[in-house]
Design brief:
single chain, about 270 residues, alpha/beta, Spore Coat Polysaccharide Biosynthesis Protein SpsA, Chain A, 7-stranded mixed sheet, 10 helices, about 15% strand, binds guanosine-5'-triphosphate
């Protein structure tokens, strides 16, 4: 017998997943254990892009114990559009988005929701870069540098310490306000924050783990798409400064290069 979900859960957890079969059972168990301890009734929506790696069978098994739904997309691929597809199907008005590979601690999901409930808060990010946040030492140096540089480049757009994070929470109102969304690449949090015209963010420090199983889907192409995405968001955020917009990312690249070189020589 399948678990009977609440008609209107208190939160919807959205997980984009591509070839993540090996991580989904542990992810689901830890998410619902954390939510259960916090007394939050939620649904979990996994958006898989036809991975054909056993994801369907594994999620079928999980449905008996927890309110889990699986969306399998066969005509589209991409992290950001997968998140949007999950958000469209969500039944609640409070959303948490997180990766499938257990890099984001499921135990922090209730903390993100708690912050979102604070008066006026319109966006919550799980951050590696706040004072008490941390990154597993197995995360490669190259990825750390790329993440830091990408963060610096987004600085004028968002006051978040970790806008590259894929672990965040928002309300349906913000999603509605952000439409139409047109993200390219990986950085859906950035798109939602900027287009949702968020003003009162909160941050939850997290310990960012190394990927539990499977392989990364982040390619060089994604990094190029990030630059295009950033360009679009700068034009959206500063529509009357188009002639100087190019200077902001250029200055950020300059600062970031200086930062990397000084870190390398010190
Ligand atoms: N549905 C769907 N999910 C995706 C796609 N690309 C990535 N994802 C998921 O998005 C999340 C982030 O992708 P990762 O490959 O882990 O990227 P990353 O965390 O930046 O890279 P690592 O640190 O190497 O893990 C994971 O849950 C992926 O399974 C996609 O094309 N479609
Ligand atoms: Mg990952």
């Amino acid at each position: 017998m399948l678990y009977m979900p609440a008609a209107q859960p208190a939160a919807s957890i959205i997980v984009p997943a591509f070839r993540e079969a090996a991580n989904l059972a542990q992810l689901t168990e830890r998410v619902f254990s954390a939510l259960g301890q916090a007394g939050i009734e939620a649904e979990l929506i996994i958006v898989d892009d036809d991975s054909q790696d056993g994801t369907v069978e594994i999620v079928d098994g999980l449905k008996g114990r927890w309110p889990v739904r699986l969306i399998v997309r066969t005509h589209e691929r991409g992290l950001s559009s997968a998140v949007l597809a999950g958000l469209e199907e969500a039944k609640s008005d409070r959303f948490v988005v997180m990766d499938a590979d257990l890099q984001h601690p499921p135990e922090s999901v209730p903390d993100l929701l708690r912050e979102l409930d604070r008066d006026g808060c319109d966006f919550v990010i799980g951050t590696r870069y706040a004072a008490t946040g941390a990154i597993d030492e197995d995360w490669p140096l190259f990825r750390r540098v790329v993440s830091r540089v990408a963060t610096l480049m987004a600085r004028p757009l968002v006051p978040l310490s970790d806008p590259m994070s894929g672990f965040f929470a928002l309300r349906r109102e913000t999603l509605r306000q952000a439409a139409p969304l047109d993200p390219i690449g990986y950085k859906i949090a950035l798109e939602l924050y900027v287009k949702g015209r968020c003003r009162r963010p909160a941050e939850v420090p997290i310990r960012f783990a190394a990927r539990a199983a499977g392989t990364t889907k982040l390619t060089f192409g994604e990094q190029v798409r990030y630059l295009r995405h950033l360009w679009r968001l700068y034009r959206f955020r500063f529509p009357h400064a188009s002639h100087v917009i190019w200077m902001a990312p250029a200055a950020m690249i300059g600062i970031a290069t200086w930062w990397v070189i000084s870190a390398a020589v010190s």
